[in-house]
Amino acid sequence: MSKPSAYPPLNVQVHTPQLSLLGATDELLERLIPTVRKGVVTGPPWPFDDPMSLYADSPEREWRWLRGIWGGRSKVSESFWRLYFVVMIDGEPMGMQDLLGIDFASFGTVTTFSWLSPDLRGGGLGKEMRQAVLHLAFEGFGAGEAGSDAFVDNHASNRVSEALGYVPNGVSWDNRKGEPAEIKRWRLTREQWAKQRRADIELAGVADCLPVLGIDPQK
Ligand SMILES: CC(C)(COP(=O)(O)OP(=O)(O)OC[C@H]1O[C@@H](n2cnc3c(N)ncnc32)[C@H](O)[C@@H]1OP(=O)(O)O)[C@@H](O)C(=O)NCCC(=O)NCCS
Asked: Cα(161)–Cα(21) distance, rounded to whole angstroms?
């Protein structure tokens, strides 16, 4: 176990019976590099919008991926923040699960972003990762509502949302490899989440992180 960071978001942890989300320190990102280098996305249907660092060729892919995370970490305001977590399975980094506060101070709204090592997909871990980060958002940060967006043909992501009680919230558009593609939008209210709140998920390091994000613990 490495020394806690002076920057509280990097010390936040979420533990479920199957996996842990750990604040994405540079050391953990470095350990994820071989997976990123191998290719998180190797064929259509392309899950991400464009331009996306994970589509570049190696080593540009890894450089852009790291820069994206470093840049994202440094933007923290009432209208936007993004916490990056490395998904640990049996002690090994296997993917990422991010939590984004979008106008959190005004509306308590969050959204999520994730990817898992391709060889581990389809075994229920995607749902477990999302449940873990939703527990952090609703239980730890007092969120009011979570959204999720995915291209219409991203069945795994859309199915994770549907299975966890999100309801459809319209459609929008985004670019994919330079072409417009339809996005399916999902919404999960606090009340809907509470109906399937899990009792076996543990949070750590949350209280110290609240002031960094401007969240009032009394609210
Ligand atoms: C999205 C992602 C993290 C989900 O993780 P996962 O481990 O594959 O998902 P799970 O195994 O938990 O599956 C969740 C549900 O999706 C279904 N599912 C998974 N892959 C599917 C596929 N290719 N087609 C149809 N359904 C699929 C599962 O059957 C399950 O549904 P169920 O609850 O009815 O059984 C993972 O697929 C991934 O990394 N994809 C590439 C990156 C990505 O798309 N990120 C999201 C961007 S919006």
From this structure: 19
Q: Which residues, 6+ apart, have CB-to-CB distance to 157 below 8 Å?
A: 47, 114, 126, 148, 150
Q: Which CATH number fits domain 8-211: 3.40.50.880, 3.30.465.10, 3.40.630.30, 3.30.750.24?
A: 3.40.630.30
User: Ligand 1 pocket: which residues have CB below 6 Å?
Assistant: 47, 114-116, 121-127, 150, 154-157, 159-160, 163
> How many angstroms is it from 149 CA to the middle of ligand 1?
13
Using DSSP's 3-state secondary structure scheme, residue 17 falls into coil
pLDDT in tens, 50-63: 989 999 999 999 99
Amino acid sitting at position 33:
I
Residue nearest to atom 23 of ligand 1 (CA): 156
What is the rounded distance in angstroms from the CA atom of residue 57 to the CA atom of residue 18? 32
| pTM over the 0.90 mark | yes
Ligand 1 centroid to 71 CA: how many Å? 28
Mean pLDDT, range 38-58, rounded to an integer: 93
Ligand 1 centroid, distance to 154 Cα (angstroms): 8
User: How far is residue 147's CA from residue 63's CA, in Å, rounded to a whole number?
Assistant: 29
Q: Which of 87, 93, 88, 78 is nearest to 112 (CA)?
A: 87
